[in-house]
């Protein structure tokens, strides 16, 4: 199988530019990068078809090896259609970003930033004495390590609060 | 007539439905009827396919009269028909849920006239990806479902959705380009893209070339399946979409990637050349994913991270390339599609009843809506792998297969699997404690809706009903785990054996190459497909 060197060089340049462009933060450049990548891939598929041959229409007396391989061209046609649709959609998204935020940059995920900034200490999870978070106040009274917990006084008339104080691990977690 | 001759209908019916619903976009009632009706019909057809394949074995159909090594084939075997049935059950439930939501909101949330056609196109793409026996057609299937998913992801065009949509689209397009490059290289190396023919011809390639192609395909599918280093995009983009859309994405899209990985590993590149890296990646996916889940305070984001984490289990089962491991992985995929989708649907309900999906704003839901609590509790315990449920059975299957294999790496993965299961339980318990059990007043920023005990009409019956149906289906997977495991075992055996698949496509006289030895090709079998 012989390969057209010019095609290969063009393909390499397209890939290089495409990868450079999708690493940018500007959406328009990312889109251009994706278009270049798609076209470079089309050239790659074309290259797998081998050398340029006769158009693949059957004619008597022509050796089968003289025809061009039609399959890669069918694949390229499909992939052109797909990348066309995706490009159109991306343009729509970019326009919408511009209409909404007046900017062309990829934005950070606000929730992601917030979670990343959250301190590792969590008031509820890491508290020494667990806060009462349950619907059932009994469990909070039974928080083990303070036998004469004043919490019992906070809930007057709780049946059975005193014996529960001796129990282990009635924490509300 | 064999079973597969009706298989293309599984793709054609949803596309027909998409065209009809698009034409009917002024008439929401007709739109709903058509899309639900056609999807139900597709489900029936797929159940019939599963039954037919169960009795008569793998069968294939060639499209357009082009014979196998040249034309596009569709292959129905036990694995693909099982995936079809589960995915259709899930997509039907989500469709009913979405119509319920649309009716309740007066179609304010989403331009519903666009939703129905796009959703059906998505289903068609998923079916096509499951059925196809041609690598390029698999790419087309992926593109159909991805393009539909771009539209669904950015439905309504609000700021956060557009932001998430950009990430999602760019990552998906890059993975598709990688897949296309891999296809081009495979075609250059072997001169065919029919998967059965490739199974024969790839075995004759130089091992270095073969490994290169193998890795390229796995990377492309790994992005789609959200396997650890390539999973960064998922928790970023899924949570912003409308609840039913997130649910169907979580259930189906990553699993299509897993399905493609399974086919790559078993049909195209059998053997254990890449098993060690796959296992390491599986371990990292499980552990890193679940640690990410623990840090989240938004339920949708938390579930997205558990989704990533549990993909690790499937990759683990796949990486063992033993019948028991693969069978457990197949079972786990079926279980996980159902459970993860139900959890996202319930989160949609939580958001409606509690006003938010942030755990800082929720509380006391167990008292406000016991039904909601039950609907959350069952799939949540199922996900964490608490004994009676199918999640437990799938995990036990995986762990057993790991112990059977017995290598130090497999044992490490078994330990990692148990740890991930426990951490999942912890993450789920945090949601339960905060959103359901504590008093609304204890929430950091309680949502006013939580105090309104008399609020009615927040949970439409259609939405609760479809969620409940899916939860019941998840429980049914537990009840019928025996037959399901048998089905999974059969399909794993068939996939590892490959004879049925290759013979069904290329004819009974095709040579099935043995597992390619690291040394190189295994002999001449080039004439396999020429009939």
UniProtKB/TrEMBL annotation, chain A:
Highest taxon in the source lineage: Bacteria
Phosphoprotein keyword on record: no
Subcellular location: Cell membrane
Membrane-related topology note: Multi-pass membrane protein
InterPro entries given in the database record: CPA3_antiporter_subunitC (IPR050601), NUOK/Mnh_C1-like (IPR039428)
GO cellular component: plasma membrane
Pfam families: Oxidored_q2
Keyword Secreted (UniProt): no
Keywords: Cell membrane, Membrane, Transmembrane, Transmembrane helix
Gene3D superfamilies for the chain: 1.10.287.3510
NCBIfam families: PRK07946.1
Family under the similarity heading: Belongs to the CPA3 antiporters (TC 2.A.63) subunit C family.
Protein name: Multicomponent Na+:H+ antiporter subunit C
The organism of origin for this protein: Arthrobacter cupressi
UniProtKB/TrEMBL annotation, chain B:
Subcellular location as annotated: Cell membrane; Membrane
Classification via InterPro entries: CPA3_Na-H_Antiporter_D (IPR050586), NADH_UbQ_OxRdtase (IPR003918), ND/Mrp_TM (IPR001750)
GO cellular component, as recorded: plasma membrane
GO biological process: ATP synthesis coupled electron transport
Keyword Ribonucleoprotein: no
Family: Belongs to the CPA3 antiporters (TC 2.A.63) subunit D family.
Molecular function GO labels: NADH dehydrogenase (ubiquinone) activity
Key word Amino-acid biosynthesis present: no
Protein keywords: Cell membrane, Membrane, Transmembrane, Transmembrane helix
Membrane topology of this protein: Multi-pass membrane protein
Domain NADH:quinone oxidoreductase/Mrp antiporter transmembrane: 133-420
Domain of life of the native organism: Bacteria
Transmembrane residue ranges: none
Cited NCBIfam families: PRK12665.1
Protein name: Multicomponent Na+:H+ antiporter subunit D
